[in-house]
C-alpha cells in the first residue's frame, strides 16, 4: 500500500552488516583486524546502552573493540593524552568519544585532539567541514548518515524533493541536512525559533525529526503521502521509548515512517562499524 508503511531499521542494518562481514574477512585474511576504541568518561545510562549495542554489532562483524573507561572527573590533560595514545596506536582504526563530555573538559579543545582519520563519529571539525563540502572521504556523524542510508534502502527519491529537517544540532540535524543537500534535495532546517513549524514541516515531501521532544510532530506537521524519518529517542512517563513524531496520529497520512524504537537507532551502530572498516582500509591503503 502507499500509505502507513512502517520502515524498520533492521533490514538496513542487516544489509550493511552482511557486506561488512565480507570486507572484514578479506582484511583479516591479509592480517589486518579493524579495531574500534570507545572513550567513555563516567557511566551515563544512555552511553552504556549505546556502548552495548556498538560492541555487539562490532563483535558480530568481526571488528575488535576496546573500551577506555575513565573517571567522570578526569583531567583534560589526561583525556588528551589518551587520545594521543590512541592516535599513535596502529592497531586502532576508529575512535568514538561519548559526548557531551564531563563539564571540566573543554570540548572546543578536545575535538581537535582526535586525528581526523580515526574520527569515525565526526567529533573533529575537519570531518564536519567535509560533510558541509560534500567531500565523501570523511566521516559524517553516524546518526545523520543513518538517516540517509534508511532513505536510500527504501528507495526514497531525494533529488529535487523538499526535505524539512526539524533540529539543527551539530550531531544530527545540521549534518543530516547537509547530507540530504548533497543528494540534491531542497532542504529547510527548522529549530526552536522557527515560526509556524507545522506549516514549514507540512510543506515537505520528506520530514526528518530530530528535536528530542516526545511526539511533537503531530498530523498537522505532515503532508499527505510524505516520508517521515523519526530520529528522536524520548522516554515517556511510563518508561517506554517514543520518537519526536506522533506516529499514531500521522500513520494514515504518511507513505512511510520509521518506528521508534527499531528505526534510525538500529542503523546507527552499523554505520559506526562501516566507518571503522572504512578508516581501517584508508589507514592500510586498501
Ligand atoms: P539537541 O537537543 O542537541 O538538539 C535539538 C534541536 O531541536 C535543536 O536544534 C533545537 O533548536 C531543536 N528544538 C528543540 N525544541 C524544539 C521545538 N519545540 N521546536 C523546534 N525545534 C526544537 O538534540 P540532538 O540533535 O542531539 O538529538 C535530537 C533527538 O535525536 C533526541 O531525541 C535524541 O535522543 C535523538 N538521537 C537519536 C539518535 C539515534 O541513534 N537514533 C542518536 C542521537 C540523538 P535550537 O537549536 O534552537 O535550540
From TrEMBL:
It catalyses: (6R)-5,10-methylene-5,6,7,8-tetrahydrofolate + NADP(+) = (6R)-5,10-methenyltetrahydrofolate + NADPH; (6R)-5,10-methenyltetrahydrofolate + H2O = (6R)-10-formyltetrahydrofolate + H(+). It comes from the Bacteria. NADP(+) binds at residues 167-169, 233. GO terms for molecular function: methenyltetrahydrofolate cyclohydrolase activity; methylenetetrahydrofolate dehydrogenase (NADP+) activity. InterPro entries: Aminoacid_DH-like_N_sf, NAD(P)-bd_dom_sf, THF_DH/CycHdrlase, THF_DH/CycHdrlase_cat_dom, THF_DH/CycHdrlase_NAD-bd_dom. Pfam families: THF_DHG_CYH, THF_DHG_CYH_C. SUPFAM superfamilies: Aminoacid dehydrogenase-like, N-terminal domain, NAD(P)-binding Rossmann-fold domains. Residues 141-283 form the Tetrahydrofolate dehydrogenase/cyclohydrolase NAD(P)-binding domain. Pathway: One-carbon metabolism; tetrahydrofolate interconversion. Its EC number is 1.5.1.5, 3.5.4.9. Keywords: Amino-acid biosynthesis, Histidine biosynthesis, Hydrolase, Methionine biosynthesis, Multifunctional enzyme, NADP, One-carbon metabolism, Oxidoreductase, Purine biosynthesis. CDD domains: NAD_bind_m-THF_DH_Cyclohyd. Residues 7-121 form the Tetrahydrofolate dehydrogenase/cyclohydrolase catalytic domain. GO terms for cellular component: cytosol. One of its GO terms (biological process) is tetrahydrofolate interconversion. Homodimer. Catalyzes the oxidation of 5,10-methylenetetrahydrofolate to 5,10-methenyltetrahydrofolate and then the hydrolysis of 5,10-methenyltetrahydrofolate to 10-formyltetrahydrofolate. Belongs to the tetrahydrofolate dehydrogenase/cyclohydrolase family. This is Bifunctional protein FolD. The gene is folD.
